[in-house]
Hints:
Two copies of one chain form a homodimer. Chain A has 321 residues and is an alpha+beta fold. Chain A is 43% helix and 26% strand. Chain A has a seven-stranded antiparallel beta sheet with strand order 1-2-3-4-5-6-9. In chain A, helix 1 (3-26) packs parallel to helix 5 and helix 3 (137-152) packs antiparallel against helix 5 (198-223). The model of chain A has no long low-confidence stretch (mean pLDDT 94). The interface between A and B is medium-sized, with 30 and 30 residues.
Amino acid sequence: MTIKETWIAYIHDLQDRICTVLEEADGTAKFIEDAWERPEGGGGKTRVIANGAVFEKGGVNTSIVFGEVTEAMRTQLKIDGHSWFACGLSLVIHPSNPFVPTVHCNYRMFELYNEAGEVMDRWFGGGTDLTPYYLFEEDAKHFHQTYKDACDKFDLNFYPSFKETCDNYFVNFHRNNERRGIGGIFYDYQRPDENRDVDFWVGLAKSCGNAFMQAYIPIVNKRKDMPYTEANKHWQEIRRGRYVEFNLVHDRGTLFGLKTNGRIESILMSLPPTVRFEYNYQPIAGSKEDELLQACLHPRDWLSIVTEEEKLAWAKASNSC
Amino acid sequence: MTIKETWIAYIHDLQDRICTVLEEADGTAKFIEDAWERPEGGGGKTRVIANGAVFEKGGVNTSIVFGEVTEAMRTQLKIDGHSWFACGLSLVIHPSNPFVPTVHCNYRMFELYNEAGEVMDRWFGGGTDLTPYYLFEEDAKHFHQTYKDACDKFDLNFYPSFKETCDNYFVNFHRNNERRGIGGIFYDYQRPDENRDVDFWVGLAKSCGNAFMQAYIPIVNKRKDMPYTEANKHWQEIRRGRYVEFNLVHDRGTLFGLKTNGRIESILMSLPPTVRFEYNYQPIAGSKEDELLQACLHPRDWLSIVTEEEKLAWAKASNSC
C-alpha cells in the first residue's frame, strides 16, 4: 500500500471504530451517514448523531479532497506546487448532560505534488481537546494522561509541547484569552525528515487517534447518569456560546472551509445544538461554574496536580504502614 | 453647537426616545444602563433589556470614542491622519414571539483630524434592517415604505441605492448568499461635498433614525400577541443561528470591535438569547418557514408587490363603482 492508501484506510477504520463505541456509550441513537462529493475533486463521509440518550449532537467526519493548487491557495495559504491532496478525520461530540464534556479531535495528512505528480511536500497535523462545563480534576488528569502515554512512546517532548500548542490555539482572544476548554494536544506541520520518517508520523497519528476511545469513553460513562438541574444546563448553554465564538471567529479550519466553498453542513456540524448568549453573564465567584471558567482562563499542568482522592489514597496507605 | 456636539446630542436623544417606545411596547421590562469608559479615549452607554413580555433580549447602545490613529488603523483600515473621532448609535432587538421580527439599526459619524486638530475628513454611515422569522408581506412593505419616505425627502435615488447596499451587505456568503433577513437600508462613507453639506447628511441620519419608531413599533404591536407553537419557536432559533453566523463570520463592525479591543459585551449584545444549530436543517418546501427562507435567498422589491389585502381593497372599490 502507498502512504496515501495506508492513511486513508486508517482514517476510515478509525471512523468506524469511533462511531461504534460512541453508539455503545449512547445506547439509543445511531450515526447517519451523508456521503458527499466535492466538484473540484474528492468528497467525504459525514456521520452525524442527534438527540441520543447521551449525545445531543455530534459528527464524526472523514474527507479525502484533492485538486490543483489555485491562485487563492498560492497567495493566501503560501502553498507552492502543482496539485495537492488532503485526508483527515474530524469529530465534535456535544453531550446533553452538562457533566459530560464536549470533545473535539482531528487527524490529517496533506501532500503537495509537482507537475510530474511527485510528492514535493507532506505534513501531518492533529490533536484532541476537551471542553467540560464543570471541572472534574480526575477527568482532566485521565484525559491528559492518556494522550501523554500515546505521545511518550514517540518522544517525551511531544506531550508538553503539543499540550502548550493546544492551550495557545483554542483561545477566545477577544475574551481575555479565555480558552475554549481544558486543552489536550495539538500539533501541525509535522514533516518527515532523516530522523523521523513517514511511518513515524503515521504511527504517532495512529497512537493518538486510537487513544480517543480510552481518553473519552470512560469519562462519558462515569458522568452520563449524573443528575443535573436547569441551572447546570443553562451554564452549559452559556459555555456553548463560547464554543460558537471560537469556531466562527478564530478557528482557522472552519474559516478556511467557509471561505473556500467547503461543504458547509459538514464544517458547521461542530456548532452545539442549543446555545445561549446573555449580556455580560458572569458566574458567581467561587461557584462550580466559576471554577471551570478559571481553569479556562489559566491553563494548568494537569499531570502535576494531586487530586483529593489521591491524597486520601496516600493517607490511607501511609496510615497502614 | 459644533457639528460634533449636534451629532452627539441627537444620538443620545434618539437613544432615550427609542428606549422609551420599546419599553412601552414591551409593557414589563425596563432597560438597564451600563456606562463604560474606553482606556484609549471615550466610552459609551450600553442599554440592555432582557426577558420582557415582548423582548427576549435587546440592546440600544451609544458610544463616543476617539484617539490617535494607530499603526493598525493606518495599515488595516487605510486611515491616514493624526487622530480620529467616532460616535454612533447601534441597536439590536430580539423579540421572543417568532412572529415579531428582529431589528437592527446603526447610525454613526466619523471624523479624522490633522496634527493641528483640524477636520481632514468626515463621513456618515447608517441603516436599519429587518430579520423576520415568518414573512408578512404587509410588514415588509410597511418597513421598506417607511424608510423610502425617510430617504425620499433627501434624494429619490437614495432608497433604491441604500436598499441594494443593504441586500448586498447582510449576506451569509457561505450559504449560497442567503440574506440575514429581508433588508431595509444601509449606507456608508457618505462625505459632505459642495452639493450636500454636513447638515444634509445629519438631516438624513435624523430622518432615518427617527423613522425607526414608525417602521418597527407598529409591526411589534400587530404581531406580539399572536399565538405560536413550539415548532414556530424552533424555527426562530434555527434562523437565529444564521444571525450568529453572519455577525461572527462576516460583519465588519463586529469583527473590527473584536480584533481591536472594543468592549466585548457591548459588541456581542447583538447575539440572540437562545439559538439552535441542527445538522442540515431544511424547511419543508412550500411551508411558511420555506417562504421566509426563499425571501432571504432572493431579495425582492417589496414596494412593487401588491398584497392580498390590497387586491381585496381594490376589488371592493371597483365593485362599488
